[in-house]
Write a structure and sequence with these properties.
The protein is of the alpha+beta class and 197 residues long. It has a single domain, classed as Nuclear Transport Factor 2, Chain: A (Roll), CATH 3.10.450.710. It contains seven helices and six strands. A six-stranded mixed β-sheet has the order 1-2-3-4-5-6. Strand 5 and strand 6 form a beta hairpin. The radius of gyration is 17 Å and the shape is globular.
């Protein structure tokens, strides 16, 4: 599963956009992806010396692009209500770290994939799906971004790569843990994954 996340994240963030007629959701994704591409191409950040700076800039771009609280709520579904406010905060922080760790190494190996944004599909008054096709050396890969409108603008809360949902993938795993265990067990599991006691 970690391999799938890393591969998906590579496609999500490391691609040169080919812009078609765009609305605010598509513009938001395009601008954030473009900022990551600029980091990847910065000659001053090549080699080991620039690795930490590059990683931090990628993390900053992810913070702007994703709504990690919304992503966390939708991943846990009804199980979100089982967590206390303190547990929710910790879950969001741990989940965010897992997602970042899963793709950061792949992102630093930029290979010039290209993306063509095809259309925006409104799913509700506040949710839009931005559809795209990523062209790699081996195949064309459909990637759909689910974005939600908040006060601060449009934020990604799910990414669907070749029909596989990011939050759906994790939801299954977390649901299994929470099925017969309290939320503290899930948090313990995530702490171990990110190296926290």
């Amino acid at each position: 599963m970690k391999k799938w996340i890393a591969s998906a994240a590579l496609l999500i963030f490391t691609m040169a956009p080919l812009l078609v007629s765009a609305g605010a959701p598509l513009d938001t994704i395009n601008s954030n992806v473009s900022s990551v591409i600029d980091v990847m191409r910065d000659p001053k950040l090549k080699g080991e010396a620039g690795k930490k700076v590059k990683e931090q800039k990628i993390i900053d771009a992810a913070e702007k692009l994703f709504d990690f609280v919304e992503l966390s709520k939708r991943t846990l579904g009804l199980n979100w209500n089982k967590l206390t406010p303190e547990q929710r905060k910790e879950f969001v922080d741990l989940y965010k770290t897992i997602l970042k760790d899963a793709y950061i190494d792949k992102l630093t190996a930029y290979t010039d994939e290209k993306i063509n944004y095809t259309k925006e599909v409104p799913l509700s008054e506040t949710i839009v799906e931005v559809q795209s096709i990523v062209t790699t050396k081996k195949a064309d890969v459909p990637i759909y971004y689910r974005v939600i409108k908040k006060e601060g603008g449009w934020k990604v809360f799910d990414v669907i790569v070749e029909g596989v949902s990011l939050i759906g993938n994790y939801r299954t795993q977390f649901r299994e843990i929470l099925g017969n265990n309290p939320p503290s067990t899930l948090l313990d599991t995530l702490r171990k994954k990110v190296g926290k006691k």
